[in-house]
Fold:
Amino acid sequence: KIKGFPKDFLWGASTSAYQVEGAAQEDGKGLSQQDIINQERREKFGHADASVASDHYHKYKEDIALFKEMGFTSYRFSISWARIFPKGTGEVNEAGIQFYRDLIKELKDNDIEPIPTLYHYDLPWALVEKYGGWVSREVVKDFAAFAKYVIYEFKDDIKYWTTINEQSIIVQYWTQKCYIPESDQSNNQLRYQINHHMNLAQAAAVKYIHEVGALAGPALGYSSIYPLSCKPEDMLASLNANDLRNYYYLDIYFKGHYTVAAHNYLEAAGLAPVIEEGDMEYIAAHTSDFFAINYYSSDCAKACPEGAERRWSGYNLSGKKGDMSGFETHPGFYQMCANPELDTTDWDWAIDPVGLEYVYRDLYTRYQIPMMITENGLGAYDELTSDGKIHDEYRIDYWRDHIAATKRAIEAGVEVIGFMPWSAVDLLSTSNGYKKRYGLIYIDRSDDDPKQCERIRKDSFYWYQKVIKSNGEN
Ligand code: BGP
Structure:
């Protein structure tokens, strides 16, 4: 019988390039669509832009020293495409690739396994200007060229690549994760077309990852979806929601096909992607090896009448509890709703560690693949207290319960190989700027004032240090 975490379990945490690095226009980096999107969000909502972020570009050595102090054995970060190919394609920016060489070397010198993500929402802006970005199929070959370059560059250093971050979230919150011109925003078929282009792009990356003998794992934002009640209609609606929001992606990654019921529903609704000859064979030839799970919460669904109005997911932007801008609704298929059984974070995300255990068990039975957590965390209003510290016991409670759920899944026989929660340091939240914090390490700045971005260890830092030291006995 398996007892506790395996000896070589990977303990660490995660970040993404535009959310931590800053230096958005330094050393030859081209702008990414996130530089543009976050500038617009700054004007609209007052959130920080991506120009300084957590200043990790200049402080990565200090950050890695803190990771080492915590005992990290792994670190998930993303590589900024526009830092390496400022125009998205063509000439390599030597200073850009050097930054990642230095970062990876620093991690390895500290015995921390580098786990890079190829794409975390930050398409080079030049490609948006050139052909509209992900809406165009042209992006697939440019992404493939970028992926091939970095995968070969780091062929001796990287064992685990995570490919494209959170395609399902990109479909749901597309204008926040991709730059979509206003004229295209009413054409919802494009959401699934973008996703299809990403599936082709990610298959190309998997091909190169396998060529160099490394392992590929897509990082998907994953929420288990429960039925609101035990009415059979709600049960069926939750299956529909799981098909369209979860399995529709995982079946592509691990089985190489679109989930039948979800695909047929999209076709009938005029939302299905255009698939060209040979696409599905290519995708099926390059399936992935492990699943990088980004798990924050579970969701809930109920039956939805045929005549209902279609709605897409909305975000709580104000941070006021209960202010959900919208629940996704697909007429005749399902409607998302709040789960009355669960407590929520300040931003209405349900807190559900048992749901994580459910995810591991369900997916291991369905796909028999190893899994690692590449995101899991609690967004909160962290406030420095008069002693100059962050007492984030709420975050410790959250992680303690999710780590315990991971341990139970391992003991039930699921192959979980690592836990890299969100986030290593505080960073620019995709939806709420620096108001909403996730880090083990506090970054002293506000949305309006980047200050010096001083690093301050939170209480969770010291707690996680003990967790790692005891290999998960917290
Ligand atoms: C995931 C993203 C991350 C991250 C996190 C928290 O969807 O991969 O980039 O930001 O969610 O989301 P938010 O920052 O919107 O609270």
User: Anything to note?
Assistant: Residues 16, 19, 165-166, 169, 221, 294, 375, 379, 422, 429-432, 436 surround 6-O-phosphono-beta-D-galactopyranose (CB under 6 Å).
